[in-house]
Every structure is written in structure tokens, then in C-alpha cells.
Amino acid sequence: MNAQYEFGILGPLVVTRDGRRVSLGAAQPRTLLAALLLDAGRVVPVDALVDRLWGECPPPGARNTVQNYVLRLRRALGPEVVRTDRRGYALDAEGGHRLDTHRFTSLTREGVAALDADRPERALELLGEALALWRGEPLADLEPERFRDVVPVLCEQRLAAEESWIDAAIRRGRPADALPELRRLTRLHPLRERFWAQRMLALYQCGRQGEALASFREISALLAEELGVDPGVELKTLHQRMLTAAPDLAPAVPRSPTEPVQPAAPAAAGPGRGGNLPAETTSFIGRQKELAEAERLLGLSRLVTFTGVGGVGKTRLALRTARRVASAFPDGAWLVDLAAVTDPALVERAVAESLGLRDQSTRSATDAVADHLRARRLLLVLDNCEHLVDAAATLVLRLLRAAPDLRVLATSRERLGVPGEHLLLVPCLTLRDERGGGACEAVRLLYDRAAACAVARRTGEGYGASAAELCRRLDGIPLAIELAAVRLGSLSVEEVLERLEDRFRLLTAPRHLAHASPGAAGWPAAPGTSGPGRVPGKAAGRVPVLAPGRYLQTLRGVMDWSHGLCTPGERLLWARLSVFVGCFDLRAAEAVCADEASPPESREAGESIAREDVLDLIDALVHKSVVTVEPAGSPGRPCGATRYRLLETIRQYGTDRLRTAGSSTGLLVRHCEYYRELTARAAAEWCGPDEAGWLERLRRELPNIRSALDFCRVRPGLAPTGAAIVVDLTRTRCWFFGSTLGEARHWIDSLSPLVDPGLGELTVMVPVMKAFVAIVQGDHSAAEAHLAECRAVAPEAPGRPAPVVYIEGVYALLVPGDPASIAQLAHARGEFIAAGQAGDAHMATMFWAMAAVFLGDRAEARFACDTYVAEAENAGAEWARSWAQWCTGLTELLHGEPRRGLAPLCDALVRQRALDDNWGPAWSLETLAWTLGALGHHDRAAVVLGAAHRYRQVTGARITELGPFGALHARTRAVVREHMGAEAYTGAWQRGATAEDSIALALGIAHEVHGPTDV
Prior knowledge:
- The chain has 45 helices and 15 strands.
- By secondary structure, it is mainly α.
- A five-stranded parallel sheet has the order 9-10-11-8-12, sandwiched between helices.
- β10 (378-383), α15 and β11 form a beta-alpha-beta unit.
- The longest helix is centred in the last third of the chain and has 24 residues, at 691-714.
């Protein structure tokens, strides 16, 4: 069998085939699969499966039902995955299929063995990888009582692995990394003494002895109060040793994972032996994935180039990689720092000097280096090649051809372009916390460097959120974070955050550190140097042409260096692209940044940009690590165009350049006009085959749209443009899709007073949309005030504009629940259709059908619902289809057979999840709960009511203020609560409200109720 499966039970049950998720349908087949996975590779008797599925009360024909479920699993997974045995069934564990529990057990075993062998760095990697497999509670989406014998065992194994990971972190000399995790674990497992002992030790080794002793008092009081016992021997002994300051409790000194436990023998003297890699002067934080990938690439290619934005840590990563692989090179790993070399003709001489060559012959330095390397197995690290790309590429190609056992590791802000070159784009440090509590790489770096400057108190407990925000604002760029850490000697984290608008002035080495020795206080210094611009191991004047100081002391210096490497056209585009916030696509860059008239001489001088040149210029900026490429949208979606981004630090530098040139206002106006046209086009194409693509695209464009709206708000004359953007976004339901209705109201309220009356359609649409948002939010008083505005700007009926009639109908439906809304919405629908406004007509049709179902008779409801479904299908609009399915389910509930409503409601949920819609599921789940209650499944209805509540909390909708919705909600809740009792109802409701995947839980419940063949 060719397909490769991965099964996951360390969290909700998940199955992927060749990397794509497999849908397994109802809960019972998933429970069966989970039972087989727990004994993967072994035969599970049918009776055991029956017991797992139904416990002590199996239904008649249970064995046949198991067989039916097996057949369904085979249809979903393939016939070979589940095999039949005379005793029962077995899940095939052969063929390369992977189960996360097996991987977890293997990694944990290896990690503990590494820890026992005094290899804590390796143990940290293995145990961290093992714990990263956990996605939540095991089998969280299945009935808990079915796995009461399994889940506690797995959770205990996880806790044991976490204990070992913490031991490894402490023994590695990184107790601060373990503290966030220990705080979480002692909170969740307050009586587990081992975690308290580890927390005490970690605090003690961080120099926080008082907190360590306070932790002992805390657990002592807790044990006495809860269990009436004293702490165990381990805790008591540790406490006593802390009081006596036992020497062996001092922090371990971190060492490189490749550094042997015993001192290494001295390297042989002479050129070509041992290498010249400088010793590390500060700790190395994170980068485990990048290190592993670098080692893999060096095994595949003879030339690997690290690229990335300036200050991202290419040099540090290259040196750490070189140390890790140095043992594979008998003739050593050698560093050549080209930062100081400005003359391309001197590149080969810099290499020769770094290798220690003393060639006195008349041959060229290139020939001498090639001859020296010809018979050697050696790693050459060429650092900082970006300003000498052509010369470095020529030399590397010559050396690789001359020396078959040579490997080259280069760092550059753009690729060398040598045949066979493999690239590794060095990302910024991670900004998301690790493993549910551990600090991310960026924050760990900030803590470490701040501690080195004796200012740990400013980044300790209580500063976590501010520290994380600081690192995020600095894009996770290591150089920027290290510069910020130095500032923490005189400013708090919050004060640094407040001053980041002027980050290039702020993030400069203080004068008293500007000329300090390399590595002092954790300060980033050129590796292996004794001053700026020096070649490792050589006197200051040996390389004739130097770049004095370069950018070692300022963030602006990094940007200036990158800017100087760009052509005039690239610099101009860099500045213009800074008007974009977040990511952008090529069409946006062409529309905003290109000039209408761009003569060749102006383009060559970097004074203008032709539209046809934008792509090439962006491509050049990508290769020079100024612009980063964002992942495209999902395959097959219209929004799948490549998108680009400037890191915030790079963007601010471009903004400064644009402002200095006096061009910022004009570019910002162009930016607003582009997004006005974009949202107008989205509104015009709403409720069509591109509907889902527009929703996704608009959501990705929201940062730019917000920036445009903010500029429209403060720029005289642009308020109508901003108001039009907000109106069209509301027309497309973008605010609903992203659960940002409050933001819609903020923008339209702030822009509408600035819009002059007499602007035709906009004068009407602004109060209409204000009223619509207020109605849906349940703010009745504001809705009534905005309705009055609508009537004030429109003539009396019957000549009242369709948008006003429409909003009056929506109000009548959702506030008083007036049946007159049916006729009002039908009239508005007809007017919109006649005007060719498909999107507005769709919304009127939806609310007309909703009014007919809630407030009309059966004939009206059926006719309106069928019309809505047909229009949604004909339009090919996926969002509209999801609501049409919801309407069908509601119609069956109120005017037909509630059981038949389960299938369309489930279909609506599936479609809404596929769209990543946050608004729709709140109402589909709510209606599903009503239906379950009507069918008498009160316990299940309570669970789904909780799930619906969770979604409404995200959207901010108040169901009690939405007329017919509130009435049905209250009725269902009262009936369900009466049948279950208050305590049972609350427990079931909480299960739904706290479920990790509310939609999967609800779908499973619906399948159980209605049967898998019909839902």
C-alpha cells in the first residue's frame, strides 16, 4: 500500500493520509478506530470492541454494528489498514504508518537515556519533540467514559516526560526556561511534590533563593491543609540544603552539545589543522529546527548559504552549525569574516589569511588557497558575503571545483548563485510560547541578555506579557532584542515599548558600551574579533581596506547597510512599500507604488517606477532579504496569490526614507484609493462563485484596510472614501466573517460625522449600515436612532429607497418580531434584483426567508426557503450556501420534521468550518441545539447550547436581544434544564462551552442521534 498514514490520539483523534486530513464522520466509528489504535498491530477481540463502544449496555446486534463500522473505516482509510482476524480486528502498524503515542514513547525513552548519559542538551531536544506531539487531552473529542482506563495512563506518561524535560533544562544550565512550565504544572497538579522540588531548584539556580524558600512554605501549607501531612523526604532535604547553601546546588555551566565531557586534546599546530572558530561569549538560544536543517543541507550539498534580514542571527547560527559538524572535518572548520573587506579583489586574500597561509610565490592568492584545500576535508565558513556577492561566488566556484572534499557554509543577505547552492532562509526568533507555557525563543533571548546586564528584575515574573509584546514589535530580530535588553538597564519594558516609534534612535548601543570588549554583558560582537572590522586572529591592519565599525552598535546601521546594497530603483520601491501594513500582493504593489509616467532616465536614477518593473524590483528585494514572501492561500482558492511583507523594523526604515523625501502623503492617498476600489469590487461580486475567495482575501487585507481607514479619518476630504470602504465591507459581511462587528461600528461611527450630506447613495448607505450593525449587536436604542437617520435622509414610502426598506424589515424581524417584516423584506429584495445589486439582493432574500420561517405560515416558509436555497445554488456562493442549509434546517424544525433538519444543519456547519467562518457556526450550533431539544435529546441539546454560547462569546452577539432567536433559545433552555435538572444541565453545558473543537463535538452528537447514513 502506497499511502502513508499518521494517527494521532494525543489530543482529539486525527488521521492524515499523505499529509491530508481524513474525515471519519460519526463518533462511534472514530471510537472504534481509537480502540484499534490503542492496540495497534495486535488483534482486538470483537467483545472488547463492543465493550469499548457501548460499555455494559450494548444494543441488540452490536457485533454486526461493529462490522458495519469496520467497513466504514475501510472505505475512509483503505481496505488494508484494518484487517480481519478470526478473533477480531487489528489495525495494521506496518507500512510506515505512524502513531503519535509510539513516537512519543520512543522519543521519551531516548530523551531519558540521554539524560542518564549526562547529555542534557540532547535530552532537551528529544523530550521537547516528544511533548510537542501533544495537542490537548487524549481523545478529547470522544466520550470520556469510553477511555477511562487509557487517558489517565497517557496523562501520567506526559507528566513523567515533563519532569524529565525540566530536569534536562536545569542540568543544561537553563533553569529560567523551565520556570514558566513549572508555574503551570504546580498550578494544575498542586499536590505533585516532584514539580515543587524542581520549581524550588530552578528558582534557586536563577538567584531567586527567597522565592525558592517561599515555594517550600507554600507547598508545606498546602499539604497540611489538604492532606494533613508534611512534605516528603525530597522536598525536606532540598529545603535544608538550600538553607545551608550546598555548593552542588549552584547552577550548571552550559556547554555546547558537541563539547565533550572531558577536555579535548589540543589541535595539531600549523595551517589546515584544528580550525579557528571563535569561542562563544554568550548563550545560544533556540534555533533547534534551523540547526537540524542546516546539518541536513550540509549533508546534501557542498555549498549552503544562510540568507535573511540583517541582524537575524545568520553569523551566530553558522558558527553554531560549524561547531556541531566540526568533527566530520578532519582538517577543521575555518571562519572567514568578510564584513571588513570592501574591495572585491581582496576576498581571496582574506580567505588565505584566515587559513593561515604564508605563500611567498608569484602565484595568485586564489591558486594558493585552491592548492592548499585540494587534498583536505575542510569546512569553510564565509561570513557576510552580501556586499561582495560576485567575487565570493567566483571564488567559491573555483574552490569547490579544485577541492572535492571541501564544504562551504556562507552567510549573505542574498544568494551567491553558484550551481548546486542550497539556501536556508534564517527566520526571526519564534514569537509563540512553546509547549503550552514555555517562553518563546525571542522572550528567552530578552530574558537572557537582560540578566547578563544585571536587569533580570525588569523582565521577570509579572513582565511576561510586556516582554512578549516588545519582542513582537521588534519582529523577533535577535540584534534588536539584544539592543533592547541593554536599554532595560535604565528603562522598564513598558517604557521601551512606548519609545519604539523612534526605534532607530532608541536601539543604539549606549556610549559606555559602544567601545566595550566584544561580548561584554551579552553585547553582540563580531565573532572572534577584538574590535570592529578585524579579521579573526589577525592584527588590525592586515586587510588593507576595512569597513570601519559597520553596524555593530545600532539598529539603523543594519538598515543603512542593507539600503546601501540596493539599486536606486530598489531603494525607491522599499520606501514606497512601507505604506503597506502587514502583507500585500503584487497587484497592490503595482497599483500603489508604480508611476503613471516613468521615462527611462527617471527609472534609472531611482526617481520613478514603471508598472512593468515592480515585479523585478520586488524579486530583487526578496533576494536581498528586505521583502519576505508569505505562504500563498489554500490551493484552488482565488486568494492564493503570493503575498509579501516587510518586517516592521524594515517598514519603519522605509517610512523614514519616504517621509524624508516628502512623498508619504501622496503614497498614502494612493493606498486608500486602491483599497476603496478593492472593497467596491468585492461588494459588486458578492454572492457569486468568488464569494469565499473574497472573504479570505479581505480578511488578509484587514491590516491595510485599517491603515487606510485611519488615514481617511484624519486626512481632510478623504472621509467619504473611508465611509465607502466600511459600507462595502459590511455589504460583503467581512466584519461578520472575522467576528469584528465592534470594529465595523467603531469605523462607521467615527467617519460618518465627517461625511457631507448630499453624496447620493453613500448618504443613505451610511446610516443603513450603522443601523444594521446595531440591530445585529442587540443595541436597540442605537438601532432606533440610526433608523431615524435613515428616514430623515430618504423620502416617505412608497418612494423610499430599497436599502431603507430593507433595514426597516430587518429591524421588524429581529427586534419586535413583527410579521410585517416578511412583506418589507420581499419588497426590498425585488428592488435590489431590479437594480442588478446581486449582493444586496442576496442579503434581502436571506432575511426574507428567515422572517417567513420564524413569523409566517408553513406555505410562506417553504416557498421563501426554497427560493433562497435555489438562488444560493445558482449563484455558486459558498457562504450563501451555508446559510441556505441553515435556513432549511430551521424550516424543518418549525414547519416540518425536526429530524430531517439535522442533515442540512450539519452540512452548514461543515461548510462554515471549511470557510473558517466565525459568525455562522454560532447560529448553526444554536439551531442544532433547538432541534435536539425538540427531538427529546435534552442532554445532547445542553452540550450544543454550550458550544453555541462559546461561539457567541467570540462574536459578541447577544441572542436574548434578537427577537425570535432569543425566544427559541429561552424556550429550549428552559425545557432542557427542566428535564435534566440544574446540576446535570450545567455539567453538560460546560462540556460544550469548553470543548476544544465545538463543531466536531456537535457533528458527532448529530451523527449519533440521526444515524450516519442520513447525516
